Amino acid sequence: MKQLIPALLAALCLLLASCGTSQVATLPMGTDETPVESEASESTGPWAPTGEQMQKENAVTDLLNESGEGYSYRIPQLNCQTQDAELINTAISDELMPLVDEAHTAQAQGYDPTCVEIGWESHWCGDVLVLLTHSSYPNDCAYHQVYCFDRITGTRLTNAQILDLCGVTQAEYNARMEAKNYELALQKITALYDDAMGFLDRWCSESEQNLINYENGTYDVLIGVAAASENLVARTAFLHDAEMMLFDDMALSPVYFDGTAHLLRDTLRGVYTDGFGNSYFTGVRVNTD
Question: For labeling, which of 4, 74, 136, 256 is most exposed (least CB within 10 Å)?
Fold first, then answer.
């Protein structure tokens, strides 16, 4: 996952800001400073008294390897006593604390940690807190999680609830997407098969799935040639050139991707994974070979 995840946070903030909330105030990553509150935050709701810090860090760890390189691990926790806040805190800890434990183990055994940094940042949109966590790895790879929390009700917000706050129904959202009536939109794209073409051919000028209204004759030619090519190397090159053209034209920006992983003992076999990345364990059995 490349470092384009801030686009997701920006999309959420823009969506909420369009609902008439006050200007977004940010809390610098890895600090415990009190966030600047909007005028709508006079009511304390289930929070601790207004003015106290809204986030706290559960783990702050800085390690140095033999080369003197630093590894920073900062894990936030919501400072709020509600069920949803506790569920968010548990989810964050379950996701990130094992990485901190792995880092300490790595240092003790004399090798570099897999995860080089854990951090977070938060943004306020009126009474809605958008909390973003990240775990970074070598080669510009990072994983992110986004949590939207209503400080008045003390509940976690889903995407549908965010739309409700903006007075937009899911049907209206879908209609505007289909009519290409928007300036910035966040949309999940799922390929029907495990191939780059499953993501790229939808952006051709005449494609009904081209929700971004992208038009580029050269792109259309590259996708067409790739579809007809029987040479795997040439086909890959055509698809790569088309992908770079799509990004150079800034037609869209990848934000994040879904991923799954499983660990299977050597004595077992029979895990089936389909083209969507779903894994099925009903056929797992002891390996008798």
Answer: 4
